[in-house]
Design brief:
disordered N terminus; 7 strands; alpha/beta; 7-stranded mixed sheet
């Protein structure tokens, strides 16, 4: 039967049961509770009901005295299955689950699979021989839970259900890394044993840190598989009803940010774990971890390749732009972690007006959604947002949104993010020249006295510093009318990957190449080198020029 599209209805006892399930999620699974806030109100309580039950199930398996833990879990498992058969729940959280399953006619076999996975994990420490064994655990632990609520999101066929499960698996890998130090201390290792043997490691070596090179390699293996899950899951955001897509975008972005953090930490994650990340206003700045050598003070990025990324996956163009919006959020986080203080991104050029109305709509929707949903997160991280470009042609609602974020973040100083919207370099210079000409006509400046500083003060953002490093993705090797005044002495990096695939590792490699370059600003030749980015495992070698 189809679920009630309005309120939960029913008795006060039933409504209290749904409130108890939501409270369970809010207290013990806060990132999911935050992500669920973007779901339509008609389905949100039912998603909370599924997750609330799963959280309580996990707590029964993990918490309390080890004595009798298996028996307590066995009772919970038996009671859950009995109540699903009878349609009557005795425990508040189980009552909400039973009502949700019956209301939406959800697959009870998925609940049985989850219970069996948690029971096995409760009974003995994990001992995964291969990645296939680990995948079975990931699916049974959270993949089936997500597949249980996936029908509420109006999925487009069974492939959408499968990819929702894969997305949940990718999110669980993030949880494994968060909990890794505590699990290892408790004698529980969720990494495949064949990976350890291949590198000559024992489980006991993971806590010591003596075998740094092998431990880094071990984490790199996990990252490569995790990246595979994230790439596989990415299309699912376009395979559900439009109003449910932001929820999946939020889950995917959260997993991608965790992935970037583990990329930065490598083997240090075995001892330190990963600090839980949040995408709301509760986000906190973390200490930067810059690489060796000078850090570029101002990095500008031409975010190219959204359409090609989508076409290569058989997805509509708007999916590429939404994936690009996620990559922009990742870029900001990566810049903060690498100690970069100024970041400028080419979000929409004056030439982009020549695209089709359909694509323009998709571009502006992705931009507006990214700014609106990311505003509190950026503010919490101490990011100051500025708009660079014309302000008279953009839709007034989008312009107002950007202006509000500018105002809200105006006193932040961890990173300055300049978003170039309706920007064209020649038009900026022409506008500055017109302003100077008007001053000359008015007699406030003499033409013979005009210097570079006079032109600079009439640019869209006069205080914007010169660019130290320009990055363009998707393999194109031109600057496309982007910040020509500021690029006079910039180092240039042309990276072949399409923008949605750009991550912290790529930015770190570009910064490493920058640090290896001797910048002469027109002076004599030196002994500097570094004419190419160091090759990155699994990626084509980017081209750079200086």
């Amino acid at each position: 039967m189809v679920g009630n599209e309005g309120a939960i209805g029913g008795s006060p006892e039933l409504r209290e049961s749904y409130e108890a399930a939501e409270a369970e999620v809010r207290r013990f699974l806060a990132p999911m509770w935050t992500a669920s806030d973007v779901l339509p109100a008609a389905v949100r309580p039912f998603v909370h009901a599924v997750h609330g039950w799963a959280v309580r199930t996990d707590r029964i398996a993990d918490e309390g005295s080890p004595d009798g833990r298996e028996e307590r879990f066995a009772r919970w498992q038996a009671d859950t299955l009995a109540e699903l058969r009878s349609g009557q729940g005795a425990h508040p959280v189980r009552r909400a689950l039973v009502d949700t399953v019956r209301r939406w006619d959800l697959d009870q076999a998925l609940i049985e699979e989850h219970l069996e996975t948690v029971r096995a994990d409760c009974a003995a420490a994990p001992d995964f021989e291969s990645f296939a064994d680990q995948r079975r655990y990931l699916r049974g632990n959270t993949g089936v839970v997500a597949e249980l609520w996936a029908p509420l999101l109006q999925p487009c066929g069974p492939e959408a259900l499968r990819l929702v499960s894969v997305l949940a698996e990718a999110c669980t890998v993030a949880d494994l890394f968060e909990d890794l130090p505590a699990d290892l201390a408790a004698g529980r290792c969720y990494l495949p044993r064949e990976d350890l043997r291949r590198l000559g490691l024992e489980v006991g070596d993971l806590r010591g840190g003596e075998h740094r090179e092998a431990l880094d390699a071990l984490v790199d293996i996990q990252l490569a598989r995790w990246r595979g899950l994230l790439d596989e899951a990415a299309p699912v955001t376009g395979m559900v009803g439009e109003e449910y897509a932001p929820f999946l975008h939020t889950l995917l972005l959260g997993a991608q940010l965790h992935y970037d953090e583990v990329t930065l930490l490598r083997s240090r994650v075995l001892a330190d774990g990963v600090e839980p990340l949040t995408l709301d206003g509760g986000a906190r700045p973390r200490p930067a971890r810059p690489g060796v050598g000078p850090v570029p003070g101002h990095v500008a990025v031409i975010m190219d390749g959204n359409r090609r990324w989508a076409e290569a996956r058989g997805l509509p163009v708007h999916q590429g732009h939404h994936a690009g919006s996620r990559a922009a959020m990742r870029l900001v986080n990566a810049a903060l972690r690498l100690g970069i203080r100024h970041l400028s991104i080419y979000a929409f050029s004056t030439e982009n007006w020549n695209r089709s109305q359909e694509e323009l709509g998709a571009l502006f929707d992705a931009l507006a959604d990214g700014i609106a949903r990311g505003a509190q997160w950026l503010h919490g991280l101490g990011v100051q947002v500025r708009w660079c470009g014309r302000r008279d042609r953009i839709d007034t609602s989008l312009a107002s949104t950007i202006a509000l974020v500018e105002s809200m973040t105006s006193h932040n100083d961890a990173l300055t993010l300049t978003v170039c919207v309706d920007y064209g370099g020649r038009e900026e210079l022409a506008a500055a020249a017109r302003a100077l000409a008007a001053e000359a006509v008015a007699g406030t400046v003499r033409p013979e006295d005009i210097g570079p500083a006079d032109l600079a003060r009439h640019l869209y953002v006069p205080e914007l510093p010169d660019v130290d490093l320009l990055i363009r993705t998707s393999g194109e090797q031109r600057i496309s009318n982007f910040l020509p005044w500021h690029l006079a002495y910039a180092e240039l990096v042309f990276d072949p990957v399409p923008w949605p695939d750009y991550d912290l590792a790529r930015l770190r490699d570009a910064a490493t190449a920058y640090a290896a370059r001797e910048r002469r600003f027109g002076g004599g030749r030196g002994g500097g080198s570094g004419d190419a980015l160091p090759a990155q495992a699994g990626h084509a070698k980017p081209v750079r020029t200086g």
